[in-house]
């Protein structure tokens, strides 16, 4: 009996500490993901400005090398196909059987998916915290009320002073669970919206890059043209 009472007395505090831990994780993810998205936005703006000011495909490729950000990574994946670096020298004969435009499109989409997985890291944890915290808190409340009722049954005292204290203490767990879940859900929804926006921007850039490569016949050396363009004669996309 004493062992059961000891275990029972540890349930509600254990639930509360677990919820506090979840709250700390939520705010830590908010800080980390906020910095990640802000840094990525700044890096992409800088890269795109330099990239579309380039005067040739070679200069654009040089700009994309070793630069951070999702856009630069997509550009590097695209240039790897345009220059033929995506195929090992031993497989060059097989590569000739695959249309380069198809390889480029596939490579760009694969890189977008890799960048998306990087950006959405940690969001599943937020979703889990937001969906499970109220139930964990409710579990602590139910267990605390059960403990209070067992105590009443053993002592035979059912006065308001005897009942209100233990039950009120048990209800704290539900309140804490809701308090932890609400920020987690809000943060999850916010970063999910930011993720969708970033994926949309990456899709737009990949489409522009594909059009640019199409203008140069999917070769590292662009064909000469007299057509006027918006950005510059070499890297603008019609």
UniProtKB/TrEMBL annotation:
Residues 95-203 form the MotA/TolQ/ExbB proton channel domain. It is found in: Cell membrane; Membrane. It comes from Salinicola rhizosphaerae. InterPro entries: ExbB/TolQ_transport (IPR050790), MotA_ExbB_proton_chnl (IPR002898). Belongs to the exbB/tolQ family. Keywords: Cell membrane, Membrane, Protein transport, Transmembrane, Transmembrane helix, Transport. This is Biopolymer transporter ExbB. The keyword Transport applies. It is a multi-pass membrane protein. The chain crosses the membrane at residues 6-32, 123-146, 166-191. PANTHER family: PROTEIN TOLQ, TOL-PAL SYSTEM PROTEIN TOLQ. It comes from the Bacteria. Pfam families: MotA_ExbB.
């Amino acid at each position: 009996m004493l062992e059961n009472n000891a275990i029972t007395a540890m349930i509600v505090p254990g639930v509360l500490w677990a919820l506090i831990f979840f709250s700390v994780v939520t705010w830590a993810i908010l800080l980390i993901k906020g910095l990640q998205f802000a840094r990525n936005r700044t890096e992409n703006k800088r890269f795109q400005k330099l990239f579309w000011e380039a005067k040739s495909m070679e200069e654009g490729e040089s700009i994309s090398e070793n630069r951070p950000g999702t856009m630069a990574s997509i550009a590097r994946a695209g240039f790897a196909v345009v220059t033929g670096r995506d195929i090992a020298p031993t497989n060059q004969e097989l590569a000739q059987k695959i249309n380069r435009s198809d390889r480029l499109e596939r490579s760009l989409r694969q890189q977008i998916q890799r960048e998306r997985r990087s950006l959405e890291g940690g969001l599943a944890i937020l979703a889990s915290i937001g969906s499970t915290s109220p139930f964990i808190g409710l579990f602590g409340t139910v267990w605390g009320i059960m403990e209070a009722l067992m105590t009443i049954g053993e002592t035979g005292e059912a006065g308001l002073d005897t009942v209100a204290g233990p039950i009120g203490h048990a209800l704290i767990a539900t309140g804490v669970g809701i308090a932890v879940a609400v920020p987690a859900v809000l943060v999850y929804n916010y970063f999910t919206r930011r993720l969708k926006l970033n994926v949309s921007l990456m899709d737009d850039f990949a489409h522009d890059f594909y059009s640019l490569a199409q203008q140069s016949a999917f070769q590292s050396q662009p064909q000469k043209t007299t057509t006027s363009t918006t950005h510059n004669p070499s890297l603008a996309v019609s």
